[in-house]
């Protein structure tokens, strides 16, 4: 335990007219409950930076503080240790009481932040604690200004309620890589938002509907610089119609695709030190739309790898003609097609040079392409005309030989099996019991059964395809279990492909329904086959059983 403030330390201040109190760099860790109540009602400013506060019952007294401004920065700041270890020879009233450990957070509710009612500004900077900001309930307050610069708030979940009076929020330099869509839900009157120098490029490109900033429509200034943002969706700023200054410097943007033409009050757009090679026409049109409503519009695109080539000459022309102000124009430069750097102080003169170069270059390219195209066309036409009869003869000969070969090959095909039986494992008792006995033993047919005839060590799909190709017919034992099996449906679809492409649409599929199934339970591919080709249902009577097996023998023989 470091320093602990007791009630007795502050009781003599209660009757004073003290306005400002500074207790910086005192290693304060805890306060006795009731100690803060000893401070005078005239106190307006308190500075408690560079201490090591812990949670405790004293936090419930914070609500009653009369302060309007608080500075609690640099908590847990490291100090250079002294040469010798500090020793405490005597126990005094500032020493930590062990029995207080058990109850030091008894009066603090989880995710509840007590705040002074009159508090207007908080400075909470450079605190060496790494944590996310979860959803939190705050006591009634008047906070308008919060400076949370250079902490380690790596994830902003929220919301933080209520913060109805907040106008200024600075969470820059926090290594933050996540912000939820409800974090700003209770900060609807926010006007200045500074989130620069974070890692929000990992999350903002996914906000296609502009939900992150939907609750803060009154923003006047937004700073998202140095966030490694590669792109922003078109509707990311859709709710920000009142923005005056928008900073996106130091990111990875190469195209301006997000919507800004609804920002009628926009004074400044910072795009410096990104990856823009030029601003395309949609981006230029948006800027011109904003300029019609605000003649003071200025932008900064310095530090970008701008190009001055025939492909970007329209952009250079626009720079020279537009009334929009380019900040730091004397620092602008671009690269020519020869990779030489060119200053952009005078865009109009540069455009004239590019115009002359590009006209001659374009004419040369068009001329060469036209000549090459004409030569190839004449040569092709001459060759085709000269050999026109040979080409027609070869076409018909190939066509005739193809059909003859296909027909002979089909006639010579000798199948290894009379039928491939496709069934689901739960129906194997029917297949191995009755099906094989009736058709193999009695009828002398040779059937392919996957549990018996597939080659071990061979890929399942390869076994299935080979067995179907080597069988004259494919018998499908259809049941609800069959429709729910991946490999059964694989066998069914492979049989359909075999029928269409290798058997010239011959009907090789035969369906056997073990039980009645409603058309609604059948997939479209199966229902289509049932309606167009033959199938049979397994009967439940003796006479029907005889007819059933005779029909199967007739089909497979």
From TrEMBL:
This protein's GO CC annotations: plasma membrane
Membrane topology of this protein: Single-pass type I membrane protein
One GO MF term: signaling receptor activity
Q: Where are the transmembrane segments?
A: 364-385
Q: Name one Pfam family in it.
A: TIR
Q: Which InterPro entries match?
A: Leu-rich_rpt_typical-subtyp (IPR003591), LRR_dom_sf (IPR032675), TIR_dom (IPR000157), Toll_tir_struct_dom_sf (IPR035897)
**Where found?**
Membrane
Superkingdom of this entry's organism? Eukaryota
Keywords of the record, alphabetical order, are: Glycoprotein, Immunity, Innate immunity, Leucine-rich repeat, Membrane, Receptor, Repeat, Signal, Transmembrane, Transmembrane helix
| Swiss-Prot/TrEMBL GO biological process terms | innate immune response; toll-like receptor signaling pathway
TIR domain mapped to chain residues: 415-556
User: According to its UniProt record, which protein family does this protein belong to?
Assistant: Belongs to the Toll-like receptor family.
Protein's name according to its UniProt entry:
TIR domain-containing protein
At the highest ranks, the source species' classification is:
Eukaryota, Metazoa, Spiralia, Lophotrochozoa, Mollusca
